[in-house]
Write a structure and sequence with these properties.
Elements lengths: L1 H15 L4 H13 L3 H27 L3 H35 L8 H15 L2 H11 L3 H14 L7 H13 L2 H36 L5 H5 L6 H35 L1 H10 L3 H16 L1 H11 L2 H12 L2 H4 L16 H35 L2 H9 L1 H42 L20 H14 L2 H18 L11 H11 L4 H18 L7 H19 L1
Helix pairs in contact: 2-9, 2-11, 3-4, 3-11, 4-5, 4-7, 4-11, 6-7, 7-8, 7-11, 9-11, 17-19, 20-21, 21-23, 21-24, 22-23, 23-24
């Protein structure tokens, strides 16, 4: 039963410990926005041949008179292009995970490539039957769709074991079902919007060219007949090219965070960002020096190789050191010295007397509890229990020992909590002075410093005449203040416009704050990204706007 409770608690913890669907989507968009050319090139090298082949296959099978004579060979060609696409999707997902964790992608040997083709062919061939059935039943579609996406994301690490690959993909599919279904809903709605925009563009652009340039085409000559099955397939294919990289990135992120529940890779990634270059080396050398200076390893080595006699002699030498002498028992004092003398001795005697009375009160309470429990028994069992005095005494002693153990555990927990708080305070006191972030660096975020430090930095820059940097310091102070009041969430991949939209969602009732932030953002972007020259009166006016915004945000 205990194991079941623990497993249920771990399962509940794993279900709660995850990012929201919006944050996963924002992180995926940020990864794709900053992706190097080789990341998306691998995806389109695999996907474009299949999409173009599908366009040609559909148009040819719809119109060719000889379609029946070679439709089997054409279908085989489409299947091979589909396998080609799925293999390159695995490469794309592996590169996405590499960009997240910083770990290199394994080298592609001939054996790995053949295994990849085999596993992707066997597993994704079932998707044409499983996904339509799951869509008809509706409820398990989210899990089934996530399973096939996870197969792509996890294939790079489990190529040699098909069973383990399926188990890992299914485990990831069951994680965070609410997040998964929210992602599917958002992606579906966004996909519909993209599809309708593309359909409208494909239909309207030829007519615009005819109207303004006079170019005739089959689209304008066909009229409404251009909207046929080929038109819809082309639109769906282009929508797939636009949306599927985002889908693959989202499920690669889900798999990364799901695996990090056991491996801690997300913490390792954050630690890599906290310990760049020489700082990480310095900390590593410090840890090595700390362990090298500790007496524990040397003692362990000596105990492993030394003889028992040498070990006893070493222990005796250690125990004779001054730091261990306080543990030795004191000599017996004279009988006349046992009588308390003086105010301090009287206080100690009073404390011991009260502790003794408290212990007696606990023993009496245990005796009453046992008498009450015996009184609940039937008459025959009560006589048997009363006659068996040894049994009752043993139970009383066991209950008393249990209470003492609970009390000791409670005292230990309180002591550890107090020590942890003292250590935390000592670490805060001993912490180094916060380094001033580089405001010229675009990666500097508002959560790098608290609000008061940003304001102090802004005032220092104002006195030095660095008004452009002071503007940014005031702006970051405003963002930090809004984050402290839970009106926005600081993320490095968010733009200023995204912060403004988030503020509109969370503080839509504070119209003065929204107008002030919009004006502040516009001034900051003109100064920081544009060629607008700021003067001291402009800076003072901007600082007044920031102060008013902070006052409104705290109200």
């Amino acid at each position: 039963m205990g194991n079941g409770v623990v497993e249920h608690a771990m399962k509940r913890k794993s279900q709660e410990h995850h990012k929201s669907a919006i944050l996963i989507l924002e992180e995926a968009v940020h990864l794709l926005r900053k992706a190097p050319l080789f990341l998306l090139s691998g995806y389109y090298i695999g996907t474009l041949p299949f999409i173009l082949g599908l366009f040609y296959f559909w148009a040819d099978m719809s119109r060719s008179a000889d379609a029946k004579s070679y439709h089997a060979v054409a279908s085989l060609g489409i299947a091979l292009l589909y396998i080609w696409m799925k293999c390159w999707h695995v490469v794309f997902a592996a590169r996405v995970k590499m960009s997240i964790s910083g770990q290199p992608v394994p080298r592609w040997s001939l054996h790995r490539m053949l295994t990849l083709v085999t596993t992707q062919t066997l597993i994704h061939a079932t998707a044409f039957f499983i996904l339509p059935l799951a869509a008809l039943v509706a409820i398990p579609f989210g899990w089934c769709y996530a399973f096939y996406q996870n197969i792509t994301a996890e294939a790079i690490t489990e190529l040699d074991d098909l069973k383990t690959l399926c188990q890992k993909a299914w485990f990831q599919a069951k994680l965070w079902p609410r997040q998964n279904h929210m992602l599917l809903a958002i992606i579906f709605i966004f996909g519909v919007v993209v599809f309708l925009n593309l359909a409208g563009a494909i239909y309207i652009l030829p007519h615009l060219l005819k109207k303004y340039i006079g170019v005739e085409s089959m689209f304008t000559l066909s009229g409404s007949h251009v909207i046929n099955t080929t038109f819809w397939v082309v639109t769906i294919g282009i929508s797939y090219l636009c949306m599927n990289p985002l889908v693959k990135t989202v499920y690669a992120l889900r798999c990364f965070y799901g695996a990090a529940l056991k491996s801690g890779d997300d913490l390792k990634t954050e630690l890599k960002g906290l310990m760049p270059g020489r700082t990480g080396v310095a900390i590593g050398l410090f840890v090595v020096a700390l362990f090298a200076g500790s007496p524990i390893p040397s003692i362990a080595i000596e105990t492993h190789f030394a003889s028992p006699e040498a070990l006893d002699r070493s222990i005796d030498e250690v125990m004779e050191r001054r730091e261990f002498t306080w543990r030795m028992p004191r000599e017996l004092i004279a009988e006349d010295e046992k009588t308390p003398k003086g105010p301090i001795a009287s206080v100690v005697a009073w404390i011991i007397d009260k502790l003794g009375k408290g212990i007696k009160a606990v023993i009496n309470w245990v005796d009453k509890l046992m008498d009450w429990l015996i009184g609940l028994l039937p008459a025959g069992d009560r006589r048997t229990a009363s006659s068996n005095a040894n049994w009752i005494t043993s139970v009383r002693v066991a209950v008393f020992v249990l209470l003492i153990g609970i009390l000791c555990a409670l005292v230990y927990i309180l002591w550890r909590s107090w020590m942890r708080r003292q250590n935390a305070q000592a670490e805060i006191v001993a912490a180094a002075v916060e380094s001033t972030p580089n405001l010229e660096n675009d990666d500097t975020a508002a959560d790098d410093l608290p609000v008061n430090r940003w304001l102090e930095l802004a005032r220092e820059l104002t006195e030095k005449g660095s008004w452009r940097l002071a503007i940014r310091a005031f702006y970051l102070a405003t963002l930090a203040n809004l984050a402290e009041n839970e009106l926005i969430t600081i993320e490095k991949f968010k733009s200023n416009r995204e912060y403004e939209n988030e503020l509109h969602r969370r503080a839509h009732q504070k119209e003065a704050l929204l107008k002030a932030f919009s004006k502040s953002r516009e001034v900051f972007e003109r100064v920081w990204y544009g060629m607008y020259e700021i003067t001291r009166p402009d800076l003072d006016h901007y600082a007044a706007i920031q102060k008013r915004m902070m006052t409104i945000a705290q109200s």
